[in-house]
Specification:
The complex is a heterodimer of chains A (about 200) and B (about 800).
Chain A (H helix, E strand, L loop, with lengths): L1 E2 L34 E5 L11 E3 L1 E3 L2 E3 L2 E5 L2 E6 L6 E6 L4 E7 L4 E6 L3 E6 L7 E7 L4 E2 L15 E8 L6 E7 L10 E2 L11
Parallel strand pairs in A: 1-16, 3-7, 6-12
Antiparallel strand pairs in A: 2-13, 2-14, 4-5, 7-10, 8-9, 8-11, 11-12, 14-15
Chain B lengths: L1 H5 L12 H6 L3 H65 L3 H15 L6 H16 L5 E6 L4 E6 L14 H7 L12 E6 L2 E12 L2 E11 L2 H10 L3 E6 L2 E5 L5 H5 L9 E4 L2 E12 L5 E9 L1 H52 L15 H97 L4 H26 L8 E4 H16 L3 E6 L5 E4 L1 H18 L4 E11 L5 E8 L7 H6 L17 H11 L3 E7 L3 E9 L2 H6 L15 E5 L3 H13 L3 E5 L2 H10 L4 E5 L7 H11 L4 E6 L4 H8 L4 E4 L4 H24 L1
Parallel strand pairs in B: 12-14, 18-19, 18-20, 20-21, 21-22
Antiparallel strand pairs in B: 1-2, 1-5, 3-4, 4-5, 6-7, 6-10, 8-9, 9-10, 11-13, 14-15, 15-17, 16-17
Helix pairs in contact in B: 3-9, 4-5, 9-10, 10-11, 10-17, 12-13, 13-15, 18-19
The chains are: A mainly beta (about 200), B alpha+beta (about 800).
C-alpha cells in the first residue's frame, strides 16, 4: 500500500505575529498518517451472532486518539478524557448526532453507533479537535500499520469490494476475491501517505 | 559775461518743482531724516520679504515632515486596524460551531449525501450572531475553493456563491505552505454590489487541515473619511481606482487625486492651494480595483496666520523703526549743523563785507568742526588779502579799460573810414571798367574814322576841289571829323585822352565853350562872361575845356533853384612877380561849409546822391590844373556862393615860339623812304597811300618783326609805327630799331591811350599823331619830323 502526500497537507495552527501558543503541537509526522487510513470490505455477510464490539476514543493532548476509529455497526465507543482540561464530544453528522456535554479528566462517556456512515466528532471546547468514527456494516476492516501493512482476518470467502478510505479523499474501491483458507493480497496506492503496505496474512 | 551765466535764476522765473527736486533743495536735516526713514523702510521690507519666503518654505517643510509623520502614524494605525481584521477573522475561525457544521456539511456532501440544509443554516446563523456583535460590516465564510459558503453584511446583501478565489488574501489563507509573520498577505479590498470594504482573511483550520476561510472587514465609505477627518486636520480622499468614494476636498478636486499616485511629502498644487500629501493603500478588490486613502494637508491655513502675524509685527515695528530713524537723523543733523549755523552767519557777513577779518572761535566744538573752523578762519584771512589786492587791481583795470574804450572808439572811426574808402574803391573800379570799355571802343572808332576821312581827302585831292563830287566828299570828311570829336569826348570822360599841351589863348577857349556851357546850365541860370586881353597859356585845349566844363556843371548843381554863373579871365601879377592868367568861375549857389571845402578835391568826394555824381569832377580839375603847372583856389560862403579861381602861368613868351604848321592847304611833300608799321591792314594801306601821294617811297609792314626784317634790306629815313601791336609793341620796335639805325626818324600813331602812350606823350622828343588823322596831319607830322632831323644833321658837321 502506498500513500502520497500530494493531495493535501496538514498545517500548523494559523498564526500571525505571535509565537506558537502553549496548545500548539508539532506537525503530524507523515508515517502516522497511515494510521488515518481505513481499509474495509463492502457487502460481506456478517456471520450471525457476532457481538457488538466496544471501542474507545480518548482525548489526549487536546486530540482525539485515534483520529480515525472504524467500528462495526452497533458498537459502543467510550470517550475517556485523559487531559487535565475539560473536553466535550459532539457530532452533527447524519449517521449519529449526539452531544456528550462537558466532562472533566478521568471521566468517560460512551455512545452507541447504530447506523453506518461517517460520524465526525468535535469538541466544543477545543474547536481544532476533530475525529472520525467510521461506522461500517461489517467487522471486516483494518487500519494499516505505520509501515503501511494491513490484514483483515476472517473474511468469508467470496467476491467483494475492498475500499481504501481517508477522510480527505474519495474512497478508493478494488475488487477482491477471498478464497477460504487463503490469504489474498491486495496492494493499494492511496494518494496520501507514501508508504507501501503489504497485504495481511 | 560769466557772472551773468552763473547767476541763480530769480525765484519768480523758477518753474514748478517736482517732489524730488524740492527734496534735493530742502534743508539738510530734513533730507537726512527722509533718507534714513526711506532706508529703514527699505531694509524692513527686504527683511520682511526674505523672512516671509523663509517662513513659507520652512512651514512647507515642517508640514511635509509633520504630515509624513502623521501619515505614517495613520498608516500604522490603519495597519493595526487591518491586522485587527485578520486577527478577528482568525478568532472567528476558531468558532467550533462554524467548524463542525461546515466540516460535517462538506464531508457529507463529499460522500454523496444530500446537502444538509440545517448545517448550512447553522453556519449562517452562527455568522450573523458573530457579525452582529462585531463592529465590522462584512463577515463571510468561504469553503476551501474560495467560494462564499455563508455571509453576513451590515446591509444584508446576498453574498453566498461569490467566488473570492481571485483575492490573493483568500488564496494565501487557503495555502498551508505560506507561513508568515506579516499581515499584508491577508489584507484585501472587497466589492459587494456598489459597496467597498477593507477586509482581513484568516483560514478555517480543523485538525491541521484548512477547510475554508473567514473574511472579515469594514466598509470603506464617507463615514470612514469622516472618522479619519476627526483625527486628522487636513483633507481626506478615499478612492476606488479613479472613482472617488469620499472626499473632503472642495468641489471635484478629489477626482484629480483619485487614481494618481501622489508623491508623499511633496507639495502638490490643487485648485487654489498647495497640499502636502500622504497615501495609505487599502488593497485591491476581487476585481482588481485598488482602494486607497489619501491624506492632504493644505499649506495656506498654516502659513497664513504666521504671515499675518509677521505683517502685523513688521508693520508695527517697521513704522516705529522708521520714525525713530527719522527723528534720530534729524537730531543728529541738528547737532551737526548747530555749530555750522554760526559759520553761515559769519560767511554771510563776510559776503556783505562786514566782518571779513573777524575770526570765529569754536574750541568747544567737535574735531571736524574745529578743523572746519580753522580752515574757515584761514580762508577769511586769505579773502581779506585778496580783497585788498583786488581793489588795487580794480583801479588798474579801470584805467586800462578807459584806454581800451578809446582804442575801440578809434578803431570804429578807422573802420568807418575803411568802409567809405571801400565804397569809393567800388565806384572807382566801376568807372575804370566803363573807361576801359569806352577807350577800347574809341580806339576802334579812331581807326575807322582815320580810314574814312583819309580816303575822302585823298579822293578830294585827286578830283580837285572844283569837281562837283568834291563838295559831297567834303561833307563826308566833316562828318568823320565830328565823329572823331565824339570819340575824343569819350576818351576825355574816361581820362584816356592824349595830353597835347600847347600854347593857346584862354579867351578863345572860353568863347568857344560859351554856347555849350549855356546849354548845360539851362534857362534858370544866367551866364556872364568877362574877358581880359592877352591870355595865352600852355595847356591841352581838351583838358582846359574839361576844366571849364566841370566847374560850370559844379556851379549849376550848386544852384538848383537858379542863379548867376560868372566866368572871367584876368591877367595879374603873382607874388613872384610873374604874370599869371586866371580863370575864375563864380556861382550864387548854396555855398559850402569849411569841412566840405577841405575835401572837395579828394577823389570820389561828392555831396550829390550816389549815382548822380562821380566825385571825380573837381579832382579831375585839380589833376589837370596841377599837371598844367597851374593852381586852383576856392572861396565859398554858405548861402552866398562859391568861386573857383584857376591860375595859369602866363605863356606870352612861348606863344611866339609856337610850332606853327603852314596855314595853306598845300600838302608838304618829300622823297624820303618811309616804313609804315600797323597791324590794322586798312590803316596800313591808308597811311601808305597817303604818304605815297605825298611823294615818299613807302614800305609797309604789318608787325614789328616784319619791320625789322625789312630794315635789313632797305634803309629808311623814317619809321611810322602804331603804338599798340601784338608781339612787338611800337616802343619795343623803336628801341630795337634805333639801336641799329639811330639816325632814323620816329613818328608814332595811336588811337588809344594806355600807360605806354602816356609815357611817350610826356617825352617831348617823341612825335605822336592821334588817330584819326587826315592826310594833311600825317604829311605835316612826317615832314616836320624829317625836317627836325635835318637840322641837327646839318648842324652836326659844323660842331
Amino acid at each position: 500500500m502506498l500513500l502520497s502526500t500530494a493531495l493535501t497537507t496538514r498545517r500548523p495552527r494559523f498564526r500571525i505575529y505571535s509565537d506558537p501558543g502553549p496548545g500548539a503541537r508539532p506537525p503530524a509526522r507523515e508515517g502516522e498518517e497511515m494510521r488515518n487510513v481505513v481499509l474495509y470490505v463492502q457487502h460481506a455477510v456478517v456471520v450471525a451472532g457476532t457481538p457488538p464490539a466496544r471501542a474507545a476514543m480518548a482525548q489526549r493532548d487536546e486530540q482525539f486518539q485515534p483520529h480515525v476509529l472504524p467500528v462495526y455497526r452497533g458498537a459502543t465507543v467510550d470517550f475517556p478524557n485523559e487531559d487535565d482540561v475539560f473536553h466535550n464530544v459532539f457530532s452533527l453528522s447524519s449517521a449519529k448526532t449526539f452531544d456528550l456535554g462537558r466532562f472533566p479528566k478521568g471521566s468517560s462517556k460512551s455512545e452507541v453507533f447504530d447506523n453506518t456512515g461517517t460520524v465526525q466528532v468535535f469538541c466544543h471546547i477545543h474547536s481544532d479537535m476533530s475525529a472520525v468514527v467510521l461506522v461500517l456494516e461489517n467487522p471486516y476492516f483494518a487500519v494499516p500499520t505505520v509501515a503501511g501493512k494491513y490484514a483483515i482476518a476472517d473474511v468469508p470467502p467470496g467476491d467483494y469490494t475492498l475500499v481504501g478510505w481517508h477522510e480527505r479523499i474519495k474512497p478508493i474501491s478494488r475488487a477482491i476475491h477471498v478464497t477460504a483458507g487463503e490469504t489474498t493480497r491486495l496492494d493499494f496506492n492511496i494518494p496520501i501517505p507514501a508508504i507501501a503496505v503489504d497485504g495481511g496474512h | 559775461m560769466a557772472d551773468i551765466e552763473l547767476a541763480e535764476p530769480s525765484a519768480s522765473a523758477r518753474p514748478a518743482l517736482g517732489p524730488i527736486t524740492r527734496l534735493r533743495r530742502t534743508r539738510l536735516s530734513v533730507r537726512l531724516a527722509v533718507f534714513s526713514a526711506a532706508l529703514v523702510a527699505l531694509v524692513t521690507m527686504a527683511i520682511f520679504t526674505a523672512l516671509s519666503v523663509r517662513v513659507r518654505s520652512s512651514t512647507e517643510r515642517l508640514f511635509a515632515d509633520q504630515l509624513t509623520r502623521n501619515g505614517r502614524t495613520l498608516v500604522a494605525l490603519q495597519r493595526d486596524s487591518r491586522r485587527q481584521l485578520v486577527m478577528t477573522a482568525a478568532l472567528l475561525a476558531e468558532s467550533p460551531t462554524l467548524k463542525s457544521a461546515l466540516s460535517t456539511y462538506r464531508l457529507e456532501q463529499q460522500n454523496g449525501t444530500a446537502p444538509r440544509v440545517d448545517l448550512a443554516a447553522t453556519v449562517q446563523r452562527e455568522l450573523e450572531h458573530l457579525g452582529g456583535n462585531l463592529r465590522g460590516d462584512v463577515l463571510l465564510v468561504t469553503d476551501e475553493s474560495g467560494r462564499v459558503f455563508a455571509g453576513h453584511t451590515r446591509d444584508s446583501t446576498t453574498t453566498v456563491g461569490m467566488n473570492l478565489s481571485s483575492l490573493p488574501a483568500v488564496h494565501n489563507a487557503l495555502d498551508p505552505n505560506i507561513s508568515t509573520n506579516d499581515d499584508a498577505p491577508y489584507l484585501a479590498g472587497l466589492e459587494i454590489g456598489h459597496a467597498y470594504y477593507g477586509v482581513g482573511v484568516a483560514p478555517l483550520i480543523l485538525d491541521d487541515f484548512t477547510i475554508g476561510t473567514i473574511v472579515y472587514g469594514e466598509r470603506v465609505d464617507s463615514a470612514l473619511g469622516d472618522s479619519l477627518r476627526k483625527d486628522f486636520e487636513g483633507d481626506v480622499v478615499i478612492s476606488a481606482g479613479t472613482h472617488v468614494i469620499s472626499s473632503t476636498l472642495p468641489g471635484s478636486l478629489g477626482e484629480s487625486v483619485a487614481g494618481h499616485r501622489l508623491l508623499s511629502g511633496k507639495a502638490v498644487h490643487l485648485g487654489a492651494d498647495d497640499y502636502i500629501t500622504a497615501s495609505i493603500p487599502i488593497g485591491q478588490t476581487q476585481r482588481g480595483t485598488p482602494l486607497a486613502i489619501t491624506l492632504l494637508q493644505p499649506l495656506s491655513p498654516a502659513v497664513r496666520p504666521i504671515t499675518t502675524a509677521l505683517i502685523r509685527d513688521f508693520a508695527l515695528y517697521g513704522v516705529l523703526a522708521i520714525v525713530l530713524a527719522a527723528v534720530g537723523a534729524a537730531l543728529l543733523a541738528r547737532s551737526l549743523l548747530r555749530p555750522l549755523r554760526r559759520f553761515i552767519e559769519l560767511m554771510r557777513q563776510g559776503a556783505r563785507r562786514e566782518r571779513v577779518d573777524e575770526a570765529f572761535d569754536a574750541q568747544d566744538a567737535s574735531l571736524e568742526i574745529r578743523i572746519l573752523n580753522q580752515s574757515f578762519n584761514r580762508l577769511m584771512a586769505s579773502l581779506g588779502r585778496k580783497r585788498d589786492e583786488l581793489e588795487a587791481r580794480g583801479s588798474q583795470l579801470a584805467a586800462a579799460n578807459d584806454v581800451l574804450t578809446d582804442e575801440i572808439h578809434g578803431r570804429q572811426v578807422v573802420e568807418q573810414a575803411l568802409r567809405e574808402s571801400e565804397a569809393q574803391l567800388r565806384q572807382s573800379q566801376k568807372l575804370e571798367a566803363v573807361g576801359t570799355l569806352a577807350g577800347g571802343i574809341a580806339h576802334d572808332f579812331n581807326n575807322m574814322l582815320t580810314i574814312i576821312s583819309g580816303f575822302t581827302q585823298i579822293a578830294i585831292s585827286r578830283l580837285g576841289t572844283d569837281h562837283p563830287v568834291a563838295a559831297d566828299l567834303k561833307n563826308v570828311s566833316d562828318a568823320a571829323n565830328s565823329a572823331a570829336g565824339l570819340t575824343h569826348q569819350l576818351l576825355a570822360f574816361s581820362r584816356k585822352q592824349v595830353l597835347q599841351p600847347r600854347v593857346l589863348d584862354l579867351d578863345e577857349v572860353v568863347t568857344g565853350m560859351g554856347s555849350m556851357i549855356r546849354r548845360l546850365l539851362g534857362p534858370q541860370i544866367t551866364l556872364n562872361v568877362h574877358r581880359a586881353e592877352a591870355t595865352c597859356i600852355k595847356a591841352d585845349p581838351g583838358q582846359l575845356e574839361q576844366v571849364l566844363l566841370n566847374l560850370a556843371v559844379n556851379a549849376r548843381d550848386a544852384m538848383p533853384h537858379g542863379g548867376t554863373l560868372t566866368i572871367e579871365t584876368m591877367r595879374n601879377r603873382g607874388v613872384d612877380g610873374q604874370h599869371r592868367i586866371a580863370l575864375r568861375v563864380s556861382d550864387t549857389g548854396e555855398g559850402m561849409s569849411a569841412a566840405v571845402r577841405e575835401r572837395i578835391f579828394e577823389p570820389f568826394f561828392t555831396t550829390k546822391e550816389v549815382g548822380k555824381g562821380t566825385g571825380l569832377g573837381l579832382s579831375t580839375v585839380y589833376g589837370i590844373v596841377a599837371q598844367s603847372g597851374a593852381t586852383i583856389d576856392v572861396e565859398s560862403a554858405l548861402g552866398v556862393g562859391t568861386t573857383f579861381t584857376v591860375s595859369f602861368p602866363s605863356a606870352a613868351e612861348s606863344l611866339a615860339n609856337r610850332l606853327e604848321y603852314p596855314k595853306d592847304d598845300v600838302l608838304p611833300r618829300g622823297v624820303e623812304t618811309v616804313l609804315v608799321v600797323d597791324d590794322e591792314d586798312a590803316v596800313l594801306d591808308y597811311a601808305s597811300r597817303a604818304l605815297a601821294t605825298c611823294g615818299y617811297v613807302v614800305h609797309s609792314a604789318s608787325s614789328g618783326v616784319e619791320a625789322l626784317a625789312l630794315a635789313r634790306t632797305v634803309s629808311f629815313d623814317l619809321l611810322l609805327t602804331d603804338v599798340l601791336m601784338p608781339q612787338l609793341s611800337g616802343p619795343q620796335l623803336v628801341e630795337r630799331y634805333v639801336a641799329k639805325y639811330p639816325s632814323t626818324c620816329i613818328v608814332y600813331m595811336t588811337g588809344y591811350v594806355d600807360d605806354v602812350t602816356m609815357r611817350l606823350e610826356l617825352d617831348e622828343d617823341v612825335l605822336l599823331i592821334r588817330k584819326p588823322f587826315d592826310v594833311m596831319e600825317l604829311a605835316r607830322a612826317v615832314r616836320s619830323a624829317l625836317d627836325a632831323r635835318r637840322v641837327p644833321s646839318t648842324l652836326a658837321p659844323g660842331t
